[in-house]
Amino acid sequence: MRHYTLVIVMLGLLIALFGHAQVDGLSKRSDSLLLQLDQAQTDRAKADLNTALHELYLKHDPFEAMAYARRSLAYNRAMGDSARVGLSYGDIMNAHFVAGSHSDSLLAYLQPMEAACTAANDSSLLVEIHWGYAMYYGNIGQPDKQMEHYLKALEVTRSYAPSAEQEAMLLNNIGSTLYTQEKVAAALSYFEQALALAENSVAKADMLQNCATLYEELGRSADTIEQYYEEALNLYRQEHDNGGIALVLLKKGRRLDAKGQFEAAMGLYREAEELIEAYDIGHMWYKLYRTLAQHHQTRGNYREVARYAKAAIAVVETQQNYFNTATVYEMLHEAYAELGDYEAAYAALYNWTRLQDTVQNDMMRQRTEELETKYQAEQKEMQNQLLKAQQANAEKSIRNRNLIIAVALLLLLLALGWLGAVLLSARKKREYKEQLEATVDKRTKDLQQANQELEQANYELRSFSYIASHDIKEPIRNIGNYAGLINRRLPKPQRTAFQDYFEIIESSVKQLYTLAEDFTEYISLSKTSAFQLKAVELEELMRRVEAIVQPLIEQKRGVVRVGELPKIRTNDSLLFIALKNLVENGLKYNESAIPCVEVSYRQAKGQHLIVVKDNGMGIEPAYQQQIFQMFKRLHSREAYQGSGIGLALVELAAQKLNGRVELESTLGEGSTFTLYVPVGEGKAQAGE
Fold it and tell me: Measured in whole angstroms, how far is the alpha carbon of residue 307 from the centre of its chain?
């Protein structure tokens, strides 16, 4: 007992000495920068030194770093330098992120950062905008949006601001996003690419510990994993990155838990907690509580699991940071179930699903309403312009007619008939004016009625979309959740006897949920009237498609071959929807030994031709037009899962691009879908 107490005392002394050394090193660098700041004469020099102090304190004291970033912002504003103002806003947002602030705090600085960077008209600053939005969407639990912005930031980095270090950090963040979606193999590929490019010590440490985490999941060499963790820990300590040190300590503790060395693991957790509390590292509290909950779950201490899981959820509710929260709710659900409190267990599971849908649906509904408002305003403006043009034409006609009448009057005066001509002209002018006023009045009423009908139609469509995306999905989830709880509470013999029925319920719930999501996506796409065109790298777009369908590729043991693809001017969102559904269909409806989908490109007669060819079962000629209709299926749901909306989405996306999709297929030999996208400028309009 004395020996154990001595170890604890020595550990405390080491932590105190290490902390003192950190503070001493930090103080020396801080004093040097502050001395230079006192001697600085120009606003630019003062802004640069405050930025350096922000970077120095970011990992040690995020609130102090925030204060220096605000001072830098003030000097950059005084210089009127939009680019530097935007970067200062980004520094403040980063400090809020490290401090674990509410997600609204990130958005509050992200929006002015975007405005300032846009005003600077510097393409390289787009990296900062996309990076900031990726952090925000990751914080509120939208990995699809997070991935979209990280990929765009990577594209800008490679095109306008080449930087190996920045590219490495973006690759690392993309890997982290894929990892949250359980795409381990794809995530590891990005982590290893990032590690090969990394030069900065902290960035390299991030990538080392990320690779070690995935190596552990994939069962790689234990020596390599331990080596990577130790290298990362040494680099974090070298750079005094307390958040990184705490993160590695938590991960090393989880490794000890897996070996049954619980007391040693708890020692690392306490060390991490002391660092987090001492340096106020706000974004690490959630990870600490989640790890402690996992520790007690491994030991079977379910009351402690519930305590730490609820503490983690309290951090989430305070910060509004929904990133990867499902694990904690699942642990809380299982802990209550093990303790026999099934009502609380269901409440934990239900609250998570409702919270996730609330966040996603609120943002989707807000975006939809903004697009609808913009569309209606544009329609009204077009009608107003049309009426003004008609009125101008009418006035021009009146002027021309008056000129003719004047000439006629002159002739009639010479012929002594001027009085009759004047009376006739006055009468015709009055009749024309009355007719014009009646026409304008009628068209105004017709326009008002059309606007009212449009508003009613949009309201009904929006209501139905909300029902499909929320009210329909909620009872579907309830069916699945209650079925799971019933299955869990059944004795083992009865659970085995009814296993087939529960599997049928689970399959049906998944099918209904997929149908509701796909139908919501179809409604959203069909409502949008115009899409902005831009330069799109088709190869990059296909890499995103492959990342999304990777689980299906692995399930079918198939392969996707992509030929040489150019950069074209189109809308990447619409083209992504079309290619994703075509590739999924080519793999799903394919019974070949090695399912294969080939994507190629050519150009002909002012059209981009994107060809998607598979070696699947093919389609009979009689059904080749029907498959583009909603809910038209050629096979039973027992044979192939799906909503029956995928190819309808492909045709709708093609129409939105002013293009079309054509099919050539032979039964038993595969199918070839060709997307025709026009070559041109402007915006993609709604399809006919």
Answer: 32
